[in-house]
Please model this.
Amino acid sequence: MAVKRNGCESCTDITCSSTKEVLAQGNAKNVKTAFDRVKSRGMSACLFGSTGTCCRHCNMGPCQIIDGVEEMIGICGATADTVAARGFARTVAAGSAAHTDHAREMVKGFIETAKGNGPNQIKDVEKLLSLAQLFNVVTEGREVNEIALEVGEKALAEFGKQDDQPLTMTKRAPEKRQAIWKKLGIAPRGVDREVVEMMHRTHMGVDQDYQNIMLQASRTALSDGWGASMLSTELTDIMFGTPVPRRAIVDLGVLKMDQVNITVHGHEPLLAEALCIAAQEPDMLELAKKQGAKGINLAGVCCTGNEILMRRGIPVAGGFIQQEMVLATGAVEAMVVDVQCIMQSVAEVAKNFHTDIITTNYRAKMPGAVHLQFEDHDAINSAKAILTHAIKNFKKRGQCFIPLNSKVDVVVGFSHETINYMLGGRFRGSYRPLNDNIINGRIRGVGAIVGCDNFKLGDDAHEIIARELIKNDVLVLATGCAATALGRAGLLCPEAAKLAGPGLAEVCETVGIPPVLHMGSCVDNSRILIAATAMVREGGLGDDISDLPAVGTAPLWMSEKAVAIGQYFVASGAQVVFQSLPTSGAKAFHKYLLEGLMKPLGAHWNIAEDPMEIARIMIARIDAKRAALGIDKQRERVLFDMAMRRDLGTTSIGAGCHGPGPKA
Ligand code: NFS
Ligand code: SF4
Model:
């Protein structure tokens, strides 16, 4: 456990054993990592920047504002609240833009697939038909690809939609939530439009009312969660298959001494999927052999890793915080990157070794990297060119160190559909058993642990929070780099049920699921929205997401995308807890985020620095919802009788993990 956590501004302690092992090796001695840079900076973050009161939206500034000091408002007269709200809203817009641009690429890839171009097919026809229904696409008497093409074109139109009607996907939300959005005028219209309007409204001299700014910030975030991200998740599932539970391994030990190691880092699964397919082609395997390697070992980093982990069981070498360590092993022939969350430092780290960083997307180039453009329309040949470059590096590999014992078994692939089947039984997929178990108190509630890693709070924060939640019978849903971290901690395997409280443990053991369910990448947070809606529709837990005993956290958020996610959870009625927000220098606005949003949205942001405190707040919020629902009576432990076990046991994956499992 990290020692310096409480109150530490820039905690740099590494607790992850594989990371420590790699950095302790001689061949990593020249490697400078973000941990080192945090330590060596020797200055704390700028007060104005970190509290949200610095504005450079026009050339009369930059203005540094001190709340309550008259001489210290902006040259234009902007107050701390306006400045912080504009900054916060732009963060939401930037995060939403990243998800949106990613989603657009996926929709375009989907359209190509529907046209029969490229290596992919329509795999999940059932999901396609349900989307077709949502988009009013006629399905009767039509070919699958014809339906897919129309769905794809209608999905693409959602991005540029100019009428004032809500995005199609928002029809999936609970009716009560849709009514709230309508009343507030924040039902998202066009995915691109909301980001553009947000940028406009935060331009100098436009929207100066922080409550009004937050309305558009909510609408922008909703266009991400219920629009872009949800479209991306659904169409990706239709093309590449909706995830089902499967075993896999995570951590730096997934790299192999005798194979060509290629890590794929970034976000858009079109590239990663093509690499997966191409890496199995005989000519590529032959080339690897010629270079003296026994095979080609693909491993993921960050969210693209989560995508292929969920769908193909391809191992994940590391999350965001480990991207430099993956290279510091000296055992990676190439790190293939596309967009988002790629630290510029990886090119520097790679210089110490034979490793090439290969950029593949015209939108994201890096000094010091090799650029090999990935062409969607010629996906397999593009992928082969990338693999060929990487494979040829194998012979140049020098001294390297792989922490071979650092690999942890995980069971992943808990899409909303899987949860439906596993808990409800394959023949009557339903959330009824989950709702019943929440009502009878075996499961206290649901906690989502999502988002990034960073270098501020200690790298075991996710684990501490998850352990505390499951101990208190809270079922945990995880996505993004948080999910990878929880995998490293051994919490994504059914054996971790022994760490859960008696009620949750009983449910997990009966069904054969881990107490922490890996639901995918960050765009897959949309799966959590769908799952929450399914719980509402199932009945017994209120009629809106804001009634559910469910709460989210992104304790180690780093990316602007995480703030967009937090805001769409709040605007959907779910409480979220973050470690900090860059708004504390604006008293009224800050209070509005932490309390005031309750009135219009039925949920608000929460902040806590310490992981245990985050867990405590989450449990308190869950208990408050239970009380409001009148299900807070003694959470009596009811044992399953045989019939109930049979009911729940029908779909057990029985996927026991082998290997170390969770630390005791
Ligand atoms: Ni999410 Fe994924 Fe990771 Fe954070 Fe970055 S990879 S999209 S933003 S760091 S979880
Ligand atoms: Fe300063 Fe106002 Fe310009 Fe911002 S918009 S930099 S507060 S003058």
Notes: The CA atoms of residues 259 and 293 lie 5 Å apart. The pocket of FE(4)-NI(1)-S(5) cluster (ligand 1) is lined by residues 267, 302-303, 320, 341, 451-452, 480-481, 522, 558-559, 561-562 (CB under 6 Å). The longest strand covers residues 260-265.
